[in-house]
Design goal:
Jelly Rolls, 304 residues, 49% helix, Arc Repressor Mutant, subunit A, 2 domains
């Protein structure tokens, strides 16, 4: 095993460079969007890319054209085969177990573009909740035809670089595709779809989650997040619970435990080093926290 000290985060710039390894190099639009089609990603297997858990600082949509791939999102394993789509928002831990003649189309969209696109909509929070439960879906033939139409528009726009407002047109098409793909995934929700929405409260929840993705390794106190939101911990706790059904503390614990589990299973860090990395005062405090949340001690989980 190579020496792995933490969960790596790949930027879109990193992924643009990795795209050169594939048979059909992705198309890029400024620093916010990468799209790819008919791409054989067996290079993932050949170069062991993403074999170790990592994060990607982008929203990810992948549609399987052929072949198979086994991938874990937040330690939950999915099998992708023809017709299955995967949609992953920011901050998730990703690991590719294997890919066999896996040909895909898809897109990677920067965190800033995703946030600006979804934050003002009623889709952001319910989509986040849906994708946390299940981020894969089998597309119908009609939905595949829709995807074909979007891709035809993407590449028609990209092949006319001198056309007026080409960049603006392309970005609007990407935003429209994100909304449509999100709506397809959101349609899987069986209950709770008629709940009242409040854009200001959902925007607060999305901002809280954005801060949590950035700071959960070092900050577990609700007051820290409330300070950054310029609100009281009591108000933040009330809104987050109403919007998501979970308290801020529950969300924080989910992120911290997921990070700890990934490091325990896949890194060479000692339990003491993991405790230090996650900003626990001692290994004993970390051990008690982890066992309270999971029912296992860090060592028991590492060896399980």
């Amino acid at each position: 095993m190579t020496d792995k000290k933490e969960i790596i985060t790949y930027s879109l710039s990193d992924l643009k460079q990795l795209g050169q390894l594939f048979n059909n190099e992705p198309e890029c639009m400024d620093n916010d969007v990468i799209i790819f089609r008919d791409t054989d990603v067996d290079a993932l297997r050949e170069h062991r890319l993403f074999a170790y858990p990592c994060r990607i600082d982008a929203g990810i949509f992948v549609f399987c054209e052929s072949g198979t791939m086994s991938v874990s999102i937040n330690l939950k394993t999915y099998q992708l085969t023809r017709g299955i789509a995967l949609f992953v928002l920011l901050g998730n831990i990703i690991q590719v177990h294997y890919a066999d003649h896996f040909k895909v189309r898809g897109m990677l969209v920067s965190s800033e573009f995703m946030y600006d696109t979804l934050i003002a909509s009623k889709l952001a929070t319910p989509l986040r909740m849906q994708l946390q439960a299940d981020c894969c879906i089998l597309f119908t033939d009609e939905q595949i035809r829709e995807l074909d139409e979007y891709y035809a528009l993407f590449f028609r726009t990209l092949t006319c670089p001198e056309a007026p407002f080409m960049t603006e047109t392309f970005r609007c098409l990407i935003a429209a595709a994100i909304y449509r793909i999100g709506a397809i995934f959101f349609s899987k929700v069986k209950t709770g779809s008629n709940r009242p929405t409040n854009n200001r409260r959902e925007a607060l929840f999305e901002r809280f989650m954005q801060l949590l993705e950035e700071h959960h390794v070092s900050e577990r106190n609700v007051a820290f997040y409330a300070d950054h939101l310029f609100l009281t911990p009591k108000h933040v706790s009330k809104v987050i619970l109403e919007v998501s059904g979970k308290t801020p503390t529950q969300w924080i614990d989910e992120y911290v435990v997921l990070e700890a589990k990934s490091l325990l299973k896949y890194s060479n860090l000692t339990i003491q080093e993991i405790a230090d990395y996650l900003n626990f005062s001692t290994q004993s405090v970390f051990g008690k926290y982890f066992k309270h949340k999971t029912g296992l001690s860090p060592r028991e989980y590492k060896e399980s």
